[in-house]
Structures are given as structure tokens and as C-alpha cells.
Amino acid sequence: MAELLAFVGVMVGSGYVLRTTALVRADMAKDLSTAVFYFTLPPLIFLEIHRAELSWSLLILPAVAWGVALGGSLVGLALCRAFKLPKALAGALVIVTVFGNTTFFGYPVLQGFYGSRGLTLAIFFDLLGASLATNTVAVVLASAAGGDGSIDVRQIARKLLLFPPIWGLGLGLALRGVALPSLLAEILTRIGNLTTPLIMLSIGLSLQLSAWRQDLKWVAVATVGKLLVVPLAVFLILSAIGLPSELLQVSVLQAAMPTMFFSLTLALLFGLRLHLVVNAIMVSTLLSFATLPLWRWIVG
């Protein structure tokens, strides 16, 4: 675990230094994220699913992810209404508290904690659960809170159908049992291995420490909720149900991931509380270096 955290810290810190010293462009994080999303992540997912041991019980993971998204959103909205928060603030607060970075942070962390099996389980939690919920539930929340309330169902469906990681998952499932040519497997492996370092570098490039005092009270609420309250609720509920240990581990850790970067896109598109979103992403990401090992120790 120490080696993983050291590597993550070096890569994230290097990204931050590169951006703040102007050695790379300020928008390089977006370019790297795009490269990962379209080029390195699909081969990684394809190979993991192609060679993994799968069972129907893994479908519990996306069900948990949907439960977190829907249940967390309903509870969050109810609390925001009880405290009579403005819509733009309430929408931002719910989104940054409920929806985590289960792809760009979840994959490398769970692979580091549990190896290839951890990555496989993280993929099922994310692609069939958290990512789909993000592109539906979170978009609806953001539109209702800051937009005109209208939802373009066709645009959402088109985005999901053209979602590159989903294609990696689908091809991996379709070609299970089919031997890949050794050269192709080697090329895909080398491309996929670029994913983790590029993700961590991108996270470092995205961190912004300016204006960190803005909305500090709500940032604190969101960070405590995202890193502690949400995973604690998942842990207690799933432990009471008696979920198998490996599914419990991945569910809790994915629920404990820091605020997703896509929150910023939603805030910009729909006019949500921008400083809250930016600072929640930054603070939760930095503090997750302490809370994720804690949750790893709790769940085993």
C-alpha cells in the first residue's frame, strides 16, 4: 500500500508542479483525460474482462452503485430542502457528495490494493453502475438545479452508446474464450498500462489551490459526506446484508472515492455553485490519500 500511495503522490504532485510552473499548458489535463478515455482505458478494460473469472454475482456491484446514486441523491435533496438551500447550491452539494471518481481514481487505487481482481470488480461497479448513473441521474439533477429543467434524452442515450469504456467491456465479454494473437495482446497490454500514470498526472494537472476559502463550510460538508458518511452507510448496509467480502471491499472503497471531475463540467453547463464544486474536487482528492487507506484497513 505504501508503494501505491507513494507512486500516486509522486504522479499527482508532478502534475501539479508542471502546471503551476507553466511547463505544460493549463488545459493539458483535459487532453490527457481525453487520451485516456478514448485510447488507453478501453484496451485496459477489454483485457481485464477478457481474461477475468466472472460470475453472475458480480452484477451485485452495479446494483450497489445505482443504490448509492439514487439513495444518496434522494437523501441529499431531502436534507437540502429541509434547510431551504438555494437550488444551485443544493444541486452542486448533492452531486459533489454522492458521485465519486470511480473511474479515474477508482481503477488504479483498487488495482493497487487488490491486484487484477480488484480492477475487474471496479470495472463492473463503475461501467454498469456509477458511470451510467452519472450520465443520467447526475445530469438530471444538475439540469433541474441550474438549467431550465429540460432533459435531452436522445443526447444522453447517444453519449452512453458511444461511451468508449463500454465498448471495451462489451468486446471483452463477447470475445471471452477466444485466444488473442500474442502480438495484439502485447500491444494492448502496453497501451493499457499507460492508463494509471496518465490518470494520476491528469489529476495533478487539474488541482487548483487558488480561492480555496470560497464556500469552505459547504466544501467541508461535502467532503465529510463523500469520504466518510457515504462509504460508512454502504459498509453498514452491505455488512448487515452479508455481502461476500470482495464485493463489500470494492463497494465501500468505490463509494469512498473523492468527488468526480465531471462535477465541474455539470457546474459550468448548468450554472451550479462553481467554487463549491472546484474546491470539493480538490479537497476531497487530497484528503482521500488519508481516508482511502483507512477504509482499506476497515474492509480488509
The SS-based structural class is: mainly alpha
Count structural domains: 1
The arrangement of helices and strands along the chain is HHHHHHHHHHHHH
* Total strands: 0
What level of helicity do the residues show? Answer: over 70%
CATH class: Mainly Alpha
How many strands, which pairing sense, and closed or not: the largest β-sheet?
none
**What's the helix count?**
13
CATH architecture title: Up-down Bundle
Here the CATH topology equals Na+/H+ antiporter like fold
Arithmetic mean of pLDDT: 86
Shape: globular
- What is the beta-strand fraction? under 5%
Give unreliable regions as ranges. none
Radius of gyration, in Å, reads 19 Å
Distance between the termini: 12 Å
How would you portray this structure in words?
The chain is mostly helical. It has one domain (2-299): Up-down Bundle (Na+/H+ antiporter like fold), CATH 1.20.1530.20. It has helices at 2-20, 28-51, 60-82, 87-98, 106-146, 153-161, 164-174, 182-192, 195-206, 216-241, 245-255, 262-270, 274-299. It starts with a helix and ends with a helix. 45% of the residues are buried. The model has no long low-confidence stretch (mean pLDDT 86).
